[in-house]
Amino acid sequence: MIERTFVMVKPDGIGRRLLGEVVRRYEAKGLKLIGLKMQVISTALAEQHYAEHRQKAFYSDLVSFITSGPSVQMVWEGPNAIAVIRQLNGATDSQQADRGTIRGDFGMTIRNNIVHASDSTETARREIGLFFDETELMRYPMPDDGWLGA
Predict the structure, then answer these.
(1) What's the CATH architecture for 2-42+70-137?
(2) Domain extents for the chain?
(3) How confident is the model at residue 144 (pLDDT cuts 50, 70, 90)?
(4) What beta strand segments (E) does the chain contain?
């Protein structure tokens, strides 16, 4: 099933110049990038994004961290994109993430874990809607869709 999912390369990933590596891994897997933007997220947007964590002890640290510098928001599309990206990312706690995953190879802590990704179709829909208008998402064929004569 073709799905859309939301991914954010967090300020630690941008600061360490890992955006290209993250994108390379998703593209190498065959996923299609259909939306991309870079910004320093406002506190209000961060609070909306992490609303489900509002009552947790780490909430204010989470909001402070995600607003501390530039991040890159992306929308990816492909077969089972949510599960595929979560597998490529690895466990949320970088110390527990397998080698060969983004977090296992580059993450340092549970907070400094390079990337955020949606965990369900409902979450993906909500997060994509927070950061992108439908008009900002690209539609284009891929080589396996018959593009470039393939």
Answers:
(1) 2-Layer Sandwich (3.30)
(2) 2-42+70-137
(3) low
(4) 2-9, 32-39, 71-79, 115-117
How big is the chain, counted in residues?
150
Q: What percent of the chain has pLDDT over 90?
A: 91
- Could you confirm whether 49 is annotated as catalytic? no
In this model, does residue 124 exceed pLDDT 50?
yes
Distance CA(21)–CA(27), nearest Å, equals 10
pTM above 0.90, yes or no: yes
Q: Tell me, what amino acid is at 108?
A: M
For the segment 123-139, the average pLDDT, to the nearest whole number, is 97
Categorise residue 23: left if φ over 0, alpha if ψ from -120 to 50, beta otherwise: alpha
Q: Strand 32-39 relative to strand 115-117: parallel, antiparallel, unpaired?
A: unpaired
Specify the amino acid at residue 120: S
Query: Residues 22, 82, 116, 132: which is the catalytic one?
Result: 116
Q: Is 71 helix (H, G, I), strand (E, B) or coil?
A: strand
Is the pLDDT reported for residue 149 higher than 90? no
